[in-house]
Amino acid sequence: MDKPKKTVTKKLTIRHKMQGIQSSLKAPKGQTNNFGNYNYRSAEGILSALKPLLGEWCCILVSQDQMVEMGGRVYVQTTSTLTDVDTGDFISTTGLAKEAENKKGMDDAQITGSAASYSLKRALGNLFCISDSSLDPDATNTHGKSNTNNTTKTTTRRVQQLDDII
Fold first, then answer.
1. 72-98 burial, b if ≥16 CB within 10 A, otherwise e?
2. By CB neighbour count within 10 A (0-12 exposed, 13-18 middle, 19+ buried), where does 17 fall?
3. Which of 39, 64, 77, 127 is the most buried (most CB within 10 A)?
4. Is residue 87 part of a domain?
């Protein structure tokens, strides 16, 4: 009589689970900016695509905002944390977005909410390796004005912001 074969079940680490989520995630650019004539992802769209995968991989996602001041400007910093339900292990990343000093037609709460939404989108993009096939249109859109150095200016400004943090 043959002995039953043993099956070895390897416990997945948080990194394995993250890899599975990252490789399965499909977050289409479901929003359109008619003024700038481009498509983009929203934080809500990314979260909708993530929810079934989080259940499948036994993970939870929690994001928290905090206001930080750098160089006299206020930023929303979002920390997104992926946690393994089975072990409690976690991986976190952050995203930053600067509050506009003023935005026509928006009150203070709307300005903060807009920055928080973009900061969340950045944190989720960092955590789940969501990248655009081209440069981020929110950072490079000239709204019809010619500016050939826009990408260089954006990169230089981002490097300076990161230097200020460090």
1. eeebbbbbbbbbbeeeeeeeebbbbbb
2. buried
3. 127
4. yes
Centre a 10 Å sphere on the Cβ of residue 46 and count the other Cβ atoms it contains.
Answer: 20
Does 8 fall in a domain?
A: no
Tokens, residue 153: 């200016």
Report DSSP state, residue 84: E
Q: What's the start-to-end Cα distance of the chain, in Å?
A: 67
Instruction: Give how far Cα 60 sits from Cα of 14, 15, 37, 53, Å.
Output: 11, 14, 35, 10
Asked if 59 and 83 count as a contact pair (C-beta separation under 8 A), the reply is yes
Sequence-separated (6 or more) residues with CB below 8 Å from residue 120: 43, 63, 65, 78, 80, 95
Q: What confidence tens digit (pLDDT) does each residue in 59-108 have?
A: 999 999 999 999 999 999 999 999 999 999 999 999 999 988 877 788 88
Give per-residue pLDDT as tens, 34-70: 988 899 899 999 999 999 999 999 999 999 999 999 9
Query: Tokens in use for 96?
Result: 């930053």
